[in-house]
Amino acid sequence: MEKHTYGTGLIGNCSYIAHIEKNTNISWLCLPRFDSDFLFGSMLDKEKGGEFTVLPQNGGFTSRQAYKENTNILETSVETSAGEMYKVTDFAPRFLNFDRYFKPTMLVRKIEPLKGEPKIKINCQPVANYGKTKLTPTPGSNHIQFAGRDQQVRLTTNCSITYIMEEQEFRLQRTIYLVLTYGNPMEAPIESTMEKFLNATCQYWRDWVKSTSIPNFYQKLVVRSSLVLKIHQYEDTGGIIAASTSSLPESPGSTRNWDYRYCWMRDAYYTLNVFNHLGHFEELERYFEFIQNLPVDEKGRYQPLYSITGSSKLPETVADLHGYMGNKPVRFGNQAYTHIQNDLYGQVLVSLLPLYADKRFIESEKSHSKPFINNLLQKIEETMDEKDAGLWEFRNLKQEHCYTFLFHWAGASAAVKMADRLSDLEMKNKAVELKNKAIKKIEACYIPERKAYAQAIGTKNMDASTLQLITMGYFGNDIESANNHLKALEEDLLAKDFLFYRYKHLDDFGEPETTFLICAFWYIEALACVNRLEEAMEGFETLSKYCNHLNLFSEDVDQHTGSQWGNFPQTYSHVGLLNAAYRIDKKLDKPNFMI
């Protein structure tokens, strides 16, 4: 079977994200937010999803894509069959203006001739109502107005409006700009304004990268992963989404097609852990505000995921769309919001620990949130004996998951440190008590004959999530016990090329067919933790090839073909890469000229 990779790059400005194919088509763009209806969605339906392309009329061409170095600005270079060339530069404006970040719902396409005067055709056909409605174009003096959405959709350009309206080819003799806006239109001078926006956006991203604490190990991949993660935070509220896409299958025909445009509290923990490594605290502080404003139920309990606005209701619907490569169902919304996943209380506590333990935060910067912390500890106490769906969100199976108890332990440990900072002895005593209870639960998952910890109490199934026992320091300095546990996981779940299955037993949808990339990076990190450093470095290098042409990683990988599957790009996977790189770099502890 041929290797499948996702052929898109993405741009974003912490307000929206767009996916752009190598043929210049914008195949996925939801406006005004990550979780809105799509304006372009051919990723899920070629006929109903609309189109936005800049292509040679005769269709014969080759193309290549690359990011402008250390930015989220994407350049697609096209060579026609006649040997003429042009470049499409796509970007989402983002820069500091009047001491605030300017991040409009505006997508800019700069088209410039590179060789000759190539004949091109611009096709812009946005849609609404999940592909049911094509927007109606109306020409203006220098723009096209598209009717049919709740907000004004406009394409402003210095190109001939007639050529675009009539899908007519024309010679590209000068640089032209296409400015797609949602809401407020762009009414400033086009050429000078867009060049200013492009230069300011480029400078913003390069300054952001320079302000990060990047390890020396595999810097190019680390920089790209950092830039990807950044644009998955919805800056207005601070929420961080798992992925910008929906219903990309975990494997062909599996029906495991989920909408990932939401904020999983678990994913955000891992993401914020990376931002802490990177030295970017504004993202962590925004997320802290997001968490504090999330609704809870009548018992004070959180749910596993929320919308980027903090909405708790995410009803799952099935859309009448063809699906990615014909994979159905196409889902919007996510039923997992109704699940019981008790690991999240500890994850929130661990996520927020830097605000209390890191001396770079002064007292006045830190929210006084004793009731908030106490509520999380209370929920750990109340759920200590409760079965849950676990981090893999089993829809019809509840167990006492080792991973959940690990985060009860980690969260309580974090609360001990918070209590010290807050000089709250009662809180500290409660946290110590819960930490000890969690340890007993984790030990109840132990399988003596395998010298390893199972997925849950009462089962012998192995689960890659328990790799986190090693990476989160549960074994302390006991390298032998950590390595014994790791060997048992390797025996059951390790695939070829350092890829790793989440688990191998049957679940609600059958036996998993693809490996889960975050688990592979957890494995690499675990190898480094048990001082198997050469293996860790080899594994990292091997896994690094499972990206697409722009160093973007998906959720799942088929070990037999090396194909990318699952939603894309997956913040989980990029976080795993970053944490593994940091762990290896720390273990190497060599001058950069020796790495």
TrEMBL record:
- Position of the signal peptide: none
InterPro entries linked: 6-hairpin_glycosidase_sf, 6hp_glycosidase-like_sf, GH15-like, Trehalase-like_N
Give the GH15-like domain ranges: 218-582
- For this UniProt record, give its keywords in alphabetical order, as a comma-separated list: Hydrolase
Q: Name one GO molecular function term.
A: hydrolase activity
In terms of Gene3D superfamilies, this protein maps to: 1.50.10.10
The record ties this protein, via SUPFAM superfamilies, to: Six-hairpin glycosidases
Where is the Trehalase-like N-terminal domain positioned along the sequence? 10-158
- PANTHER family registered for this protein in UniProt: GLUCAN 1,4-ALPHA-GLUCOSIDASE, TREHALASE
- Name of the protein this chain belongs to: Glycoside hydrolase family 15 protein
**Protein species of origin:** Cyclobacterium plantarum
